[in-house]
């Protein structure tokens, strides 16, 4: 059509011919315009669909199982299975997404989630994970597990808003096996007579066997022509030749590999042991099958169960000596995997050990499993294996294999497991510890002293504060920051949570983001954390965004397990009640763990008297703030005094600049205020109803607060935000995770800034460059708007 039309144009048509030509041109122009106006599909939506279609029938060449969390020190127990095409997650406790972020595990390609229980231990990380993968462009995820997962998601809809993500819940207790081109996952249901409404799931996973190599000689003999038919035969598909002859894949390929199986087992208590033993025949048949080999068993069971005689007998009876075992939640798993939190703490510790104490987890880890001992064990194992290989002539091959296996199992059990422990299923290489998360304090310190000028500024700071900050303060309140980031956790800043030690044996919590209990365990150590949980008397939730209260269930359960003398006082918006009631009714009982008082009830009449006196507090008052519906600020008047007056502590929660908060916090000793955005992003802060750094500082001035602490930073400021002038920061502190200060400490905090800014000079310079680029972009937009 186009060639004749161009010829017509060259001869300059006229009359009817010209009209026809113009009509064709107009039609082609219209078609071109319409094509240009069509919006192409978004890349992240189109590309996965194309890949999935291409690879749907291809058996992957690489299949690896990776421990995301080993259940140590408040970390979740979670396992990530990834192949060339797909990703699968097994269990999703609180903190899973933070570990995935730290270890660069791509959740954006997650397709299926399998959980063994519907209790918070296994699903506490789902709300945060769902919001994160939705932002990453994931549109569909399968969620397999016990009943009530669908109603749980429905009950979270107030604070987990999934506009673009569809989570398709599958009740695996119905016995439906999941299957795709990569593997099959068969649920095994455990039930207890004592808890008939709480079924537990284990999973038997079987990889699809990879077809053997294509034998080209046999293909030629069978008459298969070169081209795509060879690829289909290689992938295990039978083909029909043009002449009608059917060529079977098995006839022209080498024998396929033995299919590997791996098992996830979760037995929460002795009540489920009988049900486990009833499944013995099923596991025994799996282990004895000639079609598959059980390579690995992953245990989600608690340590008191994995040490139980009947449990051990079951494993020994039903699995061969060659089967590897990974015990999550074991007492030997001593490191949580949050290495970045330790890194920044070691670095800040140099500035002021009193403000930034080293995490107790680091000390416990050093005592129980020094890194040099671990390295020595690994080297010793390699040498022992070499010696055993030299004796190969004297030992039967099976005896040698068993001896090696026993030796390796003993070493592994002594070491335990941590984040990034991996097991290579295909190609079958077994356990791989090369990428395991570990601490290297010497490197962390060396990094800072490599920064030009830092060592000199640090020496100057230490000489200025040697006397004032040398002795640990015993005064109260002590303000302990457990989470100082906003929206989602990153590797250095967890989401909102502030622990206030109001008296020697009394604590109160401001907000309770995901992973709050784990932060307490890692900061204080396991024994001291138990004491803190028993002495924790009140929790305040400022509003119902997920990053401010998702950690509440785990906190209530842990405190309930310790059998405290009285329930926790929960100050929160009343709208949290349906969620807590659902969890108590459908999942596990928590109603006795707390007493709820609505924040709105304290607007007119502050809480005072016996209910708060034992907390070391005279009164608690609230006000509405400018963020979302039912968002509150809070002010405490404490029994402790500073300069002869009761200490007044005010916390903003999330808010824009708010006059009501200024009135509530008038003459505060300390204001803790959110500072989500840098000053250049004031418009973005307004749209998202947050405050900038300078706005937060001004709020402190307006209420005549003696000291202001900034927190709730956007996760773009993982280390240090962009700060205003030095003069503005004289009575202002910026919060870091695991920082703890008293009122007296805040008088000296400004002395840290020269060394602090020098330590993160490269990072702050990067922030400045981003700001310059952002301003240039805005300037171009303004010029375009004027033209």
Written account of the structure:
With 787 residues, this protein is of the alpha/beta class. The protein is built from 31 helices and 30 strands. The strands form 5 sheets. The chain has an 8-stranded mixed sheet with strand order 6-5-4-3-2-1-15-16. α17 runs antiparallel to α18 (397-415) and α21 crosses α22. It is an enzyme of class 3 (hydrolase). This is ribonuclease Z.
Tell me what portion of residues adopts beta-strand conformation: 15-25%
Biggest β-sheet: count, sense, barrel? 8 strands, mixed
Structural class based on helices, strands and sheet pairing: alpha/beta
Number of helices: 31
First CA to last CA: what distance? 41 Å
Helix content range: 25-40%
Spatially, the strands of the biggest sheet line up as: 6-5-4-3-2-1-15-16
Name the overall outline: globular
- Round the mean pLDDT to the nearest integer and report it: 87
Keywords:
787 residues; alpha/beta; eight-stranded mixed β-sheet; 31 helices; 39% helix; globular; tRNA processing; tRNase_Z_dom
Question: Could you give the topology of this structure?
Answer:
Layout: H1 2-10, H2 15-37, H3 43-55, E1 63-70, E2 77-83, E3 87-90, H4 96-102, E4 110-114, H5 120-123, H6 126-135, E5 140-145, H7 149-155, E6 166-171, E7 178-179, E8 183-190, E9 200-207, H8 216-222, H9 228-234, E10 239-240, E11 246-247, H10 249-252, E12 259-265, H11 273-278, H12 280-288, E13 292-299, H13 303-306, H14 309-318, E14 324-327, H15 339-349, H16 360-368, H17 371-390, H18 397-415, E15 422-426, E16 430-432, H19 441-449, H20 454-465, E17 478-483, E18 497-503, E19 506-512, H21 516-524, H22 526-535, E20 536-540, H23 552-561, E21 568-572, H24 577-587, E22 594-598, E23 607-608, H25 610-613, E24 617-624, E25 632-642, E26 645-651, H26 659-664, E27 670-674, H27 682-687, H28 693-702, E28 707-711, E29 732-734, E30 740-741, H29 743-746, H30 753-759, H31 761-786
Parallel strand pairs: 3-4, 4-5, 5-6, 12-13, 13-14, 19-20, 20-21, 21-22, 26-27, 27-28, 28-29
Antiparallel strand pairs: 1-2, 1-15, 2-3, 7-8, 8-9, 9-12, 10-11, 15-16, 17-18, 17-30, 18-19, 23-24, 24-25, 25-26
Helix pairs in contact: 15-19, 17-18, 20-30, 21-22
Keywords: Endonuclease, Hydrolase, Metal-binding, Nuclease, tRNA processing, Zinc
Catalytic activity: Endonucleolytic cleavage of RNA, removing extra 3' nucleotides from tRNA precursor, generating 3' termini of tRNAs. A 3'-hydroxy group is left at the tRNA terminus and a 5'-phosphoryl group is left at the trailer molecule
Domain tRNase Z endonuclease: 77-125
């Amino acid at each position: 059509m186009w060639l004749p039309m161009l010829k017509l144009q060259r001869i300059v048509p006229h009359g009817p011919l010209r009209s026809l030509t113009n009509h064709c041109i107009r039609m082609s122009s219209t078609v071109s315009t319409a094509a240009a106006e069509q919006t192409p599909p978004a890349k992240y939506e189109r590309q996965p669909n194309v890949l999935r279609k291409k690879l749907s029938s291809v058996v992957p060449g690489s299949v690896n199982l990776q421990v995301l969390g080993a259940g140590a020190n408040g970390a979740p127990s979670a396992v990530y299975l990834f192949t060339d095409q797909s990703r699968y997650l097994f269990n999703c406790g609180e903190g899973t997404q933070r570990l995935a972020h730290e270890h660069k595990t791509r959740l954006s390609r997650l397709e299926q989630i399998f959980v063994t229980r519907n209790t918070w231990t296994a699903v506490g990380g789902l709300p945060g994970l769902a919001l994160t993968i939705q932002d990453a462009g994931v549109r569909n995820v399968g969620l397999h597990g016990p009943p009530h997962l669908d109603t749980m998601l429905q009950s979270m809809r107030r604070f987990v808003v999934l506009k673009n993500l569809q989570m398709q819940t599958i009740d695996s207790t119905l016995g439906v096996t999941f299957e795709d081109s990569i593997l099959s996952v068969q649920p095994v249901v455990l039930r207890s007579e004592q808890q008939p409404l709480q079924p537990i799931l284990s999973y038997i996973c079987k990889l699809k066997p990879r077809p053997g190599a294509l034998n080209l000689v046999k293909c030629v003999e069978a008459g298969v022509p070169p081209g795509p038919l060879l690829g289909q035969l290689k992938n295990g598909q039978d083909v029909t030749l043009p002449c009608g002859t059917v060529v079977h894949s098995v006839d022209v390929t080498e024998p396929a590999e033995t299919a590997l199986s791996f098992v996830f087992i979760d037995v929460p208590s002795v009540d489920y042991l009988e049900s486990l033993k009833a499944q013995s025949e099923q596991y025994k048949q799996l282990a004895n099958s000639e079609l598959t080999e059980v390579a690995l068993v992953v245990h989600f069971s608690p340590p008191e169960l994995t040490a139980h005689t009947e449990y051990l007998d079951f494993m020994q009876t039903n699995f061969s000596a060659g089967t590897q075992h990974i015990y999550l939640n074991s007492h030997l798993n001593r490191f949580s995997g949050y290495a970045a939190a330790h890194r920044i703490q070691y670095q800040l510790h140099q500035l002021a050990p009193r403000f930034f104490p080293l995490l107790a987890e680091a000390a416990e880890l050093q005592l129980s499993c020094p890194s040099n001992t671990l390295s020595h064990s690994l080297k010793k194992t390699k040498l022992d294996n070499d010696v055993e290989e030299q004796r190969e002539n004297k030992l039967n091959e099976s005896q040698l294999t068993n001896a090696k296996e026993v030796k390796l199992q003993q070493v592994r059990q002594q070491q335990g497991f941590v984040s990034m422990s991996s097991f290579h299923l295909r190609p079958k290489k077994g356990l791989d510890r090369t990428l395991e998360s570990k601490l290297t304090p010497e490197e962390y310190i060396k990094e800072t002293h490599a920064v030009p000028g830092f060592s000199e500024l640090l020496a100057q700071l230490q000489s200025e504060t040697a006397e004032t900050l040398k002795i640990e303060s015993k005064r109260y309140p002590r303000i302990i920051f457990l989470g100082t980031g906003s929206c989602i956790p990153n590797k250095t800043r967890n989401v909102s949570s502030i622990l206030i030690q109001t008296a020697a044996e009394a604590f109160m919590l401001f907000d309770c983001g995901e992973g709050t209990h784990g932060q307490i365990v890692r900061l204080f150590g396991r024994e001291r954390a138990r004491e803190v949980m028993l002495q924790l008397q009140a929790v305040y939730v400022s509003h119902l965004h997920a990053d401010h209260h998702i950690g509440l269930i785990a906190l209530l359960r842990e405190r309930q397990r310790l059998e405290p003398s009285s329930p926790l006082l929960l100050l929160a918006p009343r709208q949290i009640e349906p969620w807590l009631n659902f969890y108590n009714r459908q999942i596990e009982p928590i109603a006795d763990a707390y007493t709820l008082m609505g924040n709105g009830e304290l607007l007119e009449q502050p809480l005072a008297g016996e209910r708060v006196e034992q907390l070391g507090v005279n009164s608690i008052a609230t006000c509405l703030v400018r963020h979302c519906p039912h968002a509150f600020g809070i002010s405490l008047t404490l029994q402790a005094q500073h300069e002869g007056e009761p200490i007044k502590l005010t916390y903003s929660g999330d808010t824009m600049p708010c006059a009501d908060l200024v009135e509530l916090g008038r003459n505060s000793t300390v204001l803790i205020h959110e500072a989500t955005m840098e000053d250049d992003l004031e418009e973005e802060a307004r749209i998202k109803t947050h405050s900038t750094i300078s706005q937060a500082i001004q709020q402190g001035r307006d209420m005549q607060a003696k000291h202001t602490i900034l927190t709730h930073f956007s996760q773009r400021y993982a280390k240090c935000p962009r700060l205003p002038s030095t003069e503005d920061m004289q009575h202002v502190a910026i919060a870091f995770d695991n920082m703890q200060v008293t009122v007296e400490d805040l008088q000296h905090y400004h002395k840290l800034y020269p060394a602090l800014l020098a330590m993160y000079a490269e990072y702050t310079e990067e922030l400045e460059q981003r700001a310059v680029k952002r301003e240039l972009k805005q300037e171009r937009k303004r010029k375009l708007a004027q033209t």
